[in-house]
Recover the amino acids of this structure.
């Protein structure tokens, strides 16, 4: 894929560009909104990774609104330290396809970008996830199963979101530590087991069909079928 990264933070941009290139993608970089808009509007890209706060007189929202006004439907992933609900809503309403708050794990960023390009153009932003009767709303940060609201803590929400985004796949401890706890090493604690156990009490125990499964010697998997 050909991907444009519009990010003014040199460290973040270097980290993202390096990772995308190592994953086999062609990457262009702009460090301000004005250059980013010019590149996005004049060259073909399969996806754009766009920071919200940019120098150059054009921030991420304005850049995206301009692209959409020009009927440019390139998939856009917002990347920002602004992680509140209102900020995500504004980004998605401006025409963004997905939103990832800093700090983030590269594995999750790559998975989201690839999912955007697979989904194709014109299907609208991702605002919710669903597996069987379990529903997760990314805007209101709420969880429901079989229509019943489930109260979860912020870390539990991130854990459940990651499991749902990788439904049907084995998720290892390393993947969870990096994506949910922002650890790039194993601190040798049972923090994952504790949080998965809490999620099961809320998401699985009150319902007849379990969704969160332990994969022996591997990790966890969220799926509708029984193990």
């Amino acid at each position: 894929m050909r991907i444009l990264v519009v990010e003014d933070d040199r460290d973040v941009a270097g980290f993202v560009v390096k990772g995308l290139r190592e994953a086999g993608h062609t990457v262009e970089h702009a460090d301000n909104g004005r250059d980013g808009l010019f590149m996005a509007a004049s060259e073909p890209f399969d996806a754009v990774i766009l920071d919200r706060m940019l120098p150059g007189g054009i921030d991420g929202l304005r850049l995206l609104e301009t692209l959409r006004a020009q009927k440019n439907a390139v998939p856009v992933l917002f990347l920002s330290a602004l992680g509140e609900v209102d900020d995500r809503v504004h980004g998605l309403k401006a025409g963004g396809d997905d939103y990832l708050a800093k700090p983030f794990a590269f594995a999750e960023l790559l998975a989201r970008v690839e999912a955007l390009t697979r989904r194709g153009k014109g299907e609208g932003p991702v605002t919710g996830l669903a597996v069987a009767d379990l529903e997760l709303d990314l805007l209101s940060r709420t969880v429901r199963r079989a229509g019943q609201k489930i109260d979860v803590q912020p870390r539990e929400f991130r854990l459940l979101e990651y499991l749902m985004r990788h439904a049907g796949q084995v998720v290892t401890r390393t993947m969870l530590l990096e994506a949910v706890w922002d650890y790039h090493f194993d601190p040798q604690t049972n923090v994952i087991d504790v949080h998965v156990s809490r999620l099961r009490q809320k998401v699985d125990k009150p319902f007849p069909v379990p969704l969160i499964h332990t994969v022996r010697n591997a990790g966890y998997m969220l799926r509708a079928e029984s193990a």
Q: What stands out?
A: The two ends are 36 Å apart (CA to CA). The chain has a mean pLDDT of 85.
